[in-house]
Amino acid sequence: MLKTKAFVRKTKRGAVVKVVKEHYLRDDIYCGVPSCRTCLSAQQHHHHAPQAAVLTSPRTTTKFTSPHFIVPDTNVLYHQIDVMEHAAFTDVIVLQTVLEELKHRSTPVYQRVRQLIADPARRFYVFCNEHNRDCYVERAVEESPNDRNDRAIRTAVAWYNVHLKDCIPAAATVLVTDDAENRRKAVAEKLPVYSVKEYVSSMADHPELIDMVATVNEENIDEEEKFAYPEHLANSQISAGLKSGAFFQGKLSISANNFLEGSVFAEVDKEEKTVMVVGREHLNRAIHGDIVALQFLPRSEWKVPVGVILEEEQMEKDEDGAVDDVAAKHAMDVDGVAAAAAAPEKVPTAKVVGIIKRNWRPFCGTIEKASVKSTGGMSSQQSVFFWAMDKKIPKIRIRTRQAEDLVGRRIIVAIDGWAKNSRYPTGHFVRTLGDVGDRATETEVVLLEHDVPFAPFSPQVLSHLPVEGEDWIVRDDLHLAGRTDFRHLDVCSIDPPGCTDIDDALHCRPLPNGNLEVGVHIADVSHFVRPDNAMDMEARRRGTTVYLVNKRIDMLPSLLGTNLCSLRSNVDRLAFSCIWEMKRDATVVSVNYTKSVIRSKASLTYDEAQARLDDTTANDPVTTGIKLLNALAKKLRAQRMEAGALTLASPEVRFKLEEDQQDPVDVELKELKDTNALVEEFMLLANIWVAKKVYQHFPESSILRRHPQPPPSNFEALQKAVAELGISIDASTSRALADSLDKAIVPTDPYINKLIRILTTRCMMQAVYFCSGTLSEPDFWHYGLATPIYTHFTSPIRRYSDLVVHRLLAVAIGYEKGYVSELVDKVKLKELSDVLNYRHRQAQQASRSSVELFTNLFFKDKTLQEEAYVIRVMKNGFSVLIPKFGIEGYVYAEAAPTPLNTKASTTTTTTAIQPSSPFTYDADQNRLVARAAAAAAAGTTNGKEEEEEQVEIKLFSKCTVIVCVEEAGGAARRSKLVVRLVEPWVHGVSVRLEDLVRAQKEQEKEAGEGGKVVKKPKRK
Question: What CATH number has the domain spanning 365-372+380-435?
Answer without folding.
Answer: 2.40.50.700
